[in-house]
């Protein structure tokens, strides 16, 4: 491994959610939508792509902008301005096909390139055999979050957004959103023309009774893979924060619920949220015999500045097991207590009252992850802001040697004075702590001797008046 890698696995200035990992030509490529730091709506930036050698998932390379909104002929309007989550496959002709949907426009666009990293050129739109746009029939369900699987010369396209709570949006955007689940179609050799009719695939809340999907019905974010002789559908459930999977012997039906895979709030089995959560979208890939789940986390105070996260995921006897969201991520083992880490790699973050959905953060009590300056493509520097009384940040996991010293860089939030103490512990109850006083506004360092060792979660808490910004951790 070239270097240690953390979560988020890309530089912290990058906001690429909805990550779809694909192994092409000895490299792992991740395609996604592209949020903006401080964004007000989803996916404000053009598509980018990152890749890493399959034998070193710490050596990430930005492939640049691979496709721009202006390349699509759809007229920009109030609801058709941005490109949402895409997917890519290699066609029978050796070219690479990118499938995408525009913001609330019932259509799947296609772009094509000679290499995985592009650049991609507009190719067309998915259509029925009579030439009608896929999504263009009267009262047709929205064709959202396209996922694509190409196997033995046959291409399957999966779409879906399933909810019964979108009545107002349906009226203003003239689209049909229902809670009936996801759909699949088979494409012809031109990678555009649908052969036959759409088929229902995974159930939504309207039709899940007796299926085994109850409580984890399909919501959005389809992704499809084949491992061995089985097909695995990864999707975001109605809980929104979680990715689940379903398994079948066939790519176009017969799927049985498998279980949860990933939660960007670290919420499993009804446990309280450990991080400010929101929508999730990703997929699984097998790299050198190991399986990884890619998803995204929330930053800021809304769902529009999301970042890719990834974890190794256990796969045994055809079954995947849930993967905790950690700070170590693709590193696959506890991080070394050496050097400096941005505080923005926290995988536990909550106020004194706990964490909630990121869109429900109200008042001034909640901490959040942010950066100074504007949206950019250099100079990673994320930190935890508004870290007030009783707030906790956690970092999973570190390998702490005996007698280790930790230095925290902090400053007063918004330049205002804060007074209190910073505590560090290896357990969330803070039963055994090292602590230091803090009284000031300007950025400075606080050093603490750690009273624990071994593989640990590193918890940091502030107690006092005002709030600080937690900038970095230095060993």
Automatic annotation (TrEMBL):
<keyword id="KW-0119">Carbohydrate metabolism</keyword>
<keyword id="KW-0858">Xylan degradation</keyword>
<keyword id="KW-0326">Glycosidase</keyword>
<keyword id="KW-0378">Hydrolase</keyword>
<dbReference type="InterPro" id="IPR052176">
    <property type="entry name" value="Glycosyl_Hydrlase_43_Enz"/>
</dbReference>
<dbReference type="GO" id="GO:0045493">
    <property type="term" value="P:xylan catabolic process"/>
</dbReference>
<dbReference type="InterPro" id="IPR023296">
    <property type="entry name" value="Glyco_hydro_beta-prop_sf"/>
</dbReference>
<dbReference type="GO" id="GO:0004553">
    <property type="term" value="F:hydrolase activity, hydrolyzing O-glycosyl compounds"/>
</dbReference>
<comment type="similarity">
    <text>Belongs to the glycosyl hydrolase 43 family.</text>
</comment>
<keyword id="KW-0624">Polysaccharide degradation</keyword>
<dbReference type="InterPro" id="IPR006710">
    <property type="entry name" value="Glyco_hydro_43"/>
</dbReference>
<dbReference type="Pfam" id="PF04616">
    <property type="entry name" value="Glyco_hydro_43"/>
</dbReference>
<feature type="site" description="Important for catalytic activity, responsible for pKa modulation of the active site Glu and correct orientation of both the proton donor and substrate">
    <location>
        <position position="145"/>
    </location>
</feature>
<protein>
    <submittedName>
        <fullName>Family 43 glycosylhydrolase</fullName>
    </submittedName>
</protein>
